[in-house]
Amino acid sequence: MTIRYFILTVIVTFLLAIAQVLVKLGLNKLGGLNISVKTFFSDIIPIISSYYLWLGFLTIIVSSLLWMKVLSKVNLSIAYPLISLSYIFGLLAARYVFGETIPTIRWVGVGVIGIGILFIMRG
Question: Are 13 and 86 contacting, i.e. CB atoms less than 8 angstroms apart?
Answer without folding.
Answer: yes
